[in-house]
Amino acid sequence: MSVKYEAMVVTCIDPRCQKFIPIFLKEKNLEDKYSLFSIAGGTLAVTGDSYKNWKQTFLDNLKITITNHKIHKIIVINHRDCLMAKEMFGDDCVSNEECETNSHHRINELFQNQISKIYPDIKFEYYLLSIDGKFLNMKA
Ligand SMILES: [Zn+2]
After folding, report:
1. Which pLDDT does position 1 carry in this prediction?
2. Which of these, 86, 93, 9, lies nearest to 41 by C-alpha position?
């Protein structure tokens, strides 16, 4: 039996987010069709320079899921009130919804630029998850 996988999902490890993510992905018809990479800060951690080992670990995992699972998309689910965002953008920014959203946009662009250089054919989707379970669809 050949299963067609779709995406690697990248999320933060924040416990407040976990219950919403599989429901959301099931609603998108992605149940059993995605690999999962969960790391503190989600893509915030793998685009920055603070955690260089994490970036390499992410890239190694991405290579494996592209090679073995033939995924063709990365779905990023970062979230509001993220501790990593507070570390990177500052508390004042994260408590201001507009500043927080704009900062995530910048990280999404940076992430996409970095990954597209290695995998030019990969597609991207971005969501910003509120702690109450709402997913904001963000264009890169
Ligand atoms: Zn987080």
Report:
1. 52
2. 86
Q: Please determine, for residue 18, whether its predicted confidence score (pLDDT) is greater than 80.
A: yes
Q: Write the pLDDT tens digit of every residue in 45-75.
A: 999 887 889 999 999 999 999 999 999 999 9
- DSSP conformation class of 101: H
**C-alpha to C-alpha distance for 45 and 74, rounded to whole angstroms:** 16
Distance 68 CA to ligand 1 centre (A): 28
Question: 25 C-alpha vs ligand 1 centroid, how far in Å?
Answer: 18
- Which has the closest alpha carbon to 86: 20, 41, 39, 131? 41
Superfamily of structural domain 7-138: Carbonic anhydrase (3.40.1050.10)
- Closest Cα to residue 48, out of 134, 106, 4? 106
Quick one: which H or E segment has residue 21?
helix 20-27
Residue 140 has pLDDT above 80, yes or no: no
Distance, CA 3 to ligand 1 centroid (Å)?
A: 31
Query: What letter does residue 50 receive in the DSSP assignment?
Result: T
Distance from the CA of 79 to the center of ligand 1, in angstroms?
6
Ligand 1 geometric centre to CA of 43 (Å)? 10
